[in-house]
């Protein structure tokens, strides 16, 4: 994979020019894109700034995020040829940093559950996950050092884990979702994919203009709660094995490890995620549903059909349940004496088949809680498919989540 920090170091040392770095990416795309299919389009002649902390860094932009220089298609023929007038603020920020939004990456239609044609770079017969399929696959295939994605259910953490890259779903609203096609305004979160934890931390710190996020090396050994989220169906054995391996690596590195079981309010919050998500999608996609219902893919059409019947009272009750759980989560960290939680990133490795994007059951609660989540690869199955774990910190503690993920990443290499 292409390390963002390695490219930055080579450019800073004068061993590589920004244009040369973009050229490396174009070569990698030419070599891998025919098999992987992670990209919607590539800018043939982007502006390549000569300076800036991310000069020469090509970035993949999930195709629900507005770009002024490239079409934004939402993964749907409904938006064929749609050219936003302006860049989404996150894209504008990348350009200010010297980065090059070089390609749009595939998204499931409107970032829901209907699959893309993108293949898992680790095994072409397996899903890369979704909805940020192309971003995860492009980084995993070594085509891009950085890509943006979004998560409403599990759309950053799940594909990152399936493809074997680092994925970061930051604290809710750490990055602006302005200019990002909305599915659920209470859940949609903008995040990113990179080759390693330090690469991801560096990019997030710059994107969020919060340098402390990148000081992943400086944090001390964390107090880690091992969480199996027993309010949902158990994972595959490989997910349990990866969790155990990550916990043992963290303990070897000095972390304090303790099992944690969450009380009932968290299972109740897990259960209401869909009510909030789909009630809001009914409004967010009202125009598409009213004017192009037949052009919507089957899973999305069925979800919006069902969402028509969600009572506002149910939605309001779901929001109260989520709010109660978010307040309780602060106590879990403070009274439990935990810095981070360690849990499954997905039910297992990427499932076979390209007609689905996998199951987000280990991600949805944390998207609803609005807390920072980081996934990193820990194991591989006998078929060579990556298996990740998920590190979760309290709201606003994105740097600590990355620090703990970095500690585990380093310990696994030793
Ligand atoms: N957008 C989403 O997060 C939906 C998913 O989990 O695939």
UniProtKB/TrEMBL annotation:
<feature type="domain" description="Amidase">
    <location>
        <begin position="51"/>
        <end position="401"/>
    </location>
</feature>
<comment type="similarity">
    <text>Belongs to the amidase family.</text>
</comment>
<dbReference type="InterPro" id="IPR036928">
    <property type="entry name" value="AS_sf"/>
</dbReference>
<dbReference type="InterPro" id="IPR000120">
    <property type="entry name" value="Amidase"/>
</dbReference>
<feature type="region of interest" description="Disordered">
    <location>
        <begin position="114"/>
        <end position="134"/>
    </location>
</feature>
<dbReference type="Pfam" id="PF01425">
    <property type="entry name" value="Amidase"/>
</dbReference>
<dbReference type="InterPro" id="IPR023631">
    <property type="entry name" value="Amidase_dom"/>
</dbReference>
<protein>
    <submittedName>
        <fullName>Amidase</fullName>
    </submittedName>
</protein>
<dbReference type="GO" id="GO:0003824">
    <property type="term" value="F:catalytic activity"/>
</dbReference>
């Amino acid at each position: 994979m292409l390390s963002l920090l390695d490219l930055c170091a080579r450019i800073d040392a004068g061993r590589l020019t920004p244009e040369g770095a973009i050229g490396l990416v174009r070569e990698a795309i030419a070599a891998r894109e025919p098999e992987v299919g992670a990209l919607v389009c590539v800018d043939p002649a982007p502006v390549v700034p000569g300076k800036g902390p991310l000069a020469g860094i090509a970035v993949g932009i999930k195709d629900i995020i507005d770009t002024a220089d490239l079409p934004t298609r939402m993964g749907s023929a409904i938006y064929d040829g749609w050219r936003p007038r302006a860049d989404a603020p996150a894209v504008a920020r990348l350009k200010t940093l010297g980065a090059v939004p070089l390609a749009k990456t595939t998204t499931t239609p409107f970032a829901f559950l209907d699959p893309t044609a993108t293949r898992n770079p680790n095994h072409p017969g397996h899903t890369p996950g979704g909805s940020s399929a192309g971003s995860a696959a492009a980084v995993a295939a070594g085509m891009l050092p950085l890509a943006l994605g979004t998560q409403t259910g599990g759309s950053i953490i799940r594909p990152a884990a399936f493809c074997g890259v680092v994925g970061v779903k930051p604290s809710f609203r750490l990055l602006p979702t302005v200019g990002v096609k909305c599915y659920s305004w209470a859940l949609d979160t903008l995040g990113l994919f990179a080759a390693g934890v330090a690469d991801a931390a560096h990019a997030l710190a710059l994107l969020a203009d919060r340098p402390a996020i990148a000081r992943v090396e400086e944090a001390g050994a964390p107090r880690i709660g091992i969480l199996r989220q027993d309010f949902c169906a158990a994972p595959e054995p490989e997910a349990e094995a990866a969790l155990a391996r990550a916990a043992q690596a963290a303990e070897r590195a000095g972390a304090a490890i303790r099992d944690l079981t969450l009380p009932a309010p968290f299972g109740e919050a897990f259960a209401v995620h869909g009510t909030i998500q789909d009630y809001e999608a009914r409004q967010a996609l009202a125009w598409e549903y009213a004017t192009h219902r037949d052009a919507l893919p089957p899973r999305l059409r069925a979800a919006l059909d069902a969402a028509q019947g969600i009572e506002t009272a149910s939605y309001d009750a779901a929001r109260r349940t989520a709010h109660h759980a978010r307040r309780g989560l602060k106590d879990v960290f403070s009274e439990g004496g935990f810095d981070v939680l360690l849990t499954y990133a997905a039910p297992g490795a990427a499932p076979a088949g390209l007609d689905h994007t996998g199951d987000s059951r280990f991600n949805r609660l944390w998207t609803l809680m609005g807390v920072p989540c980081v996934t990193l690869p820990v194991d591989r199955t006998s078929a060579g498919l990556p298996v990740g774990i998920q590190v979760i910190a309290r709201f606003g503690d994105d740097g600590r989540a990355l620090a703990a993920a970095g500690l585990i990443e380093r310990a696994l290499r030793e």
